[in-house]
Design goal:
The structure is a single chain. By secondary structure, this protein is an alpha/beta fold. It has 2 domains: 311 residues, HypD, alpha/beta domain 2 (Rossmann fold), CATH 3.40.50; 43 residues, no CATH class. Helices cover 40% and strands 16% of the residues. The protein contains 15 helices and 13 strands. A hairpin with a 3-residue loop joins β11 and β12. The chain starts with 9 loop residues before the first helix and ends with a helix. Bound molecules: iron/sulfur cluster. Iron/sulfur cluster binds next to α14.
C-alpha cells in the first residue's frame, strides 16, 4: 500500500460525499474558495465536483504563483537575461509562461542562455561551475518557496559567491486573501486554506478572517479525502453558525508554522511597500524583496531593471478568472485562441493554473465524448 492509498479509498470517498450531501442545506448555495493552485489541480484531477451537491460551488483562488505574476516582471527578468554572460535560471513551470516577446523557452530557442533548475541551490551550484558567467535565479512562489531562496542567499554570502543573484518575485498569501475579501463582486462562505504555504506560516495568520470577516478557514491537504473532509469541516461550522480556523492537514501543517523557515525568511527578505499582481492589481505589503544586507546578490539592485508594465491582451480574462469572478471556460479565449499548446495567459501554462486544469481534465473529456458520439452517429 502506498501512503496515499487510504486518502483515495473509494468507499471512504463515497461516505464523505454522503456526509456532505447530508450537511449541505438544499436551500442554500455555498461558495467556497480554494486558495491554493495545488487544490485546484487536485479538485479537477480527481473529479471532486462530481461527488458534491450542485449547491456547493468551488471557486478557484489566486494561489498559483506563476499565474499571479504580471507579464512585466517576466519581461524584466528576460531583459537581464539578454546581457552578455548572464544565465537565466528558473523552475520548469516558468519556461512556457508568455512574456511580451515570448516565453523563456522561446527566448532560449533564439539563443538566450535559459536553464531549468529544481531549486535555488541548483542555480547557486551552476554559478560555482560557471565562474565566467553570471547566474540569475528568477525566484517565484509564496512563502512555500521563499525560505529556500533565503537560505541560498545566506549560503551565497557565506561562501562569497559573486557571480550569482536572485530576481525576487516572492509573494505572500494573506494580502491576496484580503484583496479577494475586499472585492465587491465576491461573495464567499468559507476558505479551503492553502496546504503548502501553511507548512511555513502555520494557521494563525488566518485567524483574522474568522474573527473579523466571520468566514471559516480549513487548512487542507491535497488528496481527495483531505479535500472532502475539509468541506465537511467547513459545512459543520457554517451549519453551527461558527467561524473558526481549523487544521485538517495536521500531518504536515504545524499550527505555528515552521520557525526555522520563518527565521531564514526574516533574516534575508523583507516586505515591499506594494507589488503588482495579475488580476488583482497593486496590493500593499504583498511581496518580498531582498534586504539591503544582501544587495550584492539582488538582481534588482545589481542590474538596471526596466520596470516594465504590460497589460494582458484585451480579450484575455485572466484577472477575472484569478479573482474567481469567472470560471475558466467563461473566458472568451478558452479552448480557442488559448490552449495548453498555445497559451495566452499563465493560467493555461502552470499545472496549478485553473485554466490548464479545466482544459486538461474537463475540456478534453468533453471533446472525447463529442468525438465518440459523432463516431457512433
Ligand atoms: S483561457 Fe487563457 S486568456 Fe483566458 S483566462 Fe485562461 S489563461 Fe487567461
Amino acid at each position: 500500500m502506498r501512503y496515499v492509498d487510504e486518502f483515495r479509498d473509494p468507499d471512504l470517498i463515497a461516505r464523505a460525499s454522503a456526509e456532505i450531501y447530508r450537511l449541505a442545506d438544499p436551500e442554500k448555495h455555498y461558495r467556497i474558495l480554494e486558495v491554493c493552485g495545488g487544490h485546484t489541480h487536485a479538485i479537477y484531477r480527481f473529479g471532486l465536483k462530481d461527488v458534491l451537491p450542485s449547491n456547493i460551488e468551488l471557486i478557484h483562488g489566486p494561489g498559483c504563483p506563476v499565474c499571479v505574476l504580471p507579464m512585466g516582471r517576466i519581461d524584466d527578468g528576460l531583459a537581464v537575461a539578454q546581457r552578455e554572460g548572464v544565465i537565466f535560471a528558473a523552475f520548469g513551470d516558468m519556461m512556457r509562461v508568455p512574456g511580451t516577446f515570448g516565453s523563456p523557452l522561446e527566448h532560449k530557442a533564439r539563443g538566450t542562455d535559459v536553464r531549468v533548475v529544481y531549486s535555488p541551490a541548483d542555480a547557486l551550484q551552476m554559478a560555482k561551475k560557471n565562474p565566467d558567467k553570471h547566474v540569475m535565479f528568477f525566484a517565484i512562489g509564496f512563502e512555500t518557496t521563499a525560505p529556500s531562496t533565503a537560505l541560498t542567499l545566506q549560503r551565497a554570502r557565506a561562501e562569497g559567491i559573486q557571480n550569482f543573484s536572485v530576481f525576487c518575485n516572492h509573494v505572500t498569501i494573506i494580502p491576496a486573501m484580503r484583496a479577494i475579501l475586499d472585492s465587491p463582486d465576491m461573495r464567499l462562505d468559507g476558505f479551503i486554506g492553502p496546504g503548502h504555504v501553511s507548512t511555513v506560516i502555520g494557521c494563525r495568520p488566518y485567524e483574522w478572517i474568522a474573527r473579523n470577516e466571520r468566514k471559516p478557514v480549513v487548512t487542507s491537504g491535497f488528496e481527495p479525502l483531505d479535500l472532502l473532509q475539509s468541506i465537511i469541516m467547513l459545512l459543520r461550522q457554517l451549519g453551527a453558525g461558527e467561524a473558526r480556523v481549523e487544521n485538517q492537514y495536521k500531518r504536515v501543517v504545524p499550527w505555528d508554522g515552521n520557525p526555522a523557515a520563518l527565521d531564514a525568511m526574516a533574516k534575508v527578505l523583507t516586505l515591499r511597500p506594494y507589488f503588482e499582481w495579475r488580476g488583482l492589481g497593486f496590493i500593499s505589503q504583498s511581496a518580498l524583496k531582498i534586504r539591503d544586507e544582501f544587495a550584492a546578490w539582488d538582481a534588482e539592485q545589481r542590474f538596471q531593471i526596466p520596470g516594465t508594465r504590460v497589460t494582458d491582451p484585451k480579450a484575455a480574462q485572466c484577472g477575472e478568472v484569478l479573482k474567481g469572478v469567472l470560471k475558466p471556460a467563461q473566458c472568451k479565449l478558452f479552448g480557442k485562441e488559448c490552449t495548453p499548446e498555445h497559451p495566452i495567459g499563465a493560467l493555461m501554462v502552470s499545472s496549478e493554473g485553473s485554466c490548464a486544469a479545466h482544459y486538461n481534465y474537463e475540456h478534453r473529456k468533453a471533446e472525447a465524448m463529442v468525438a465518440t458520439i459523432s463516431s457512433v452517429a
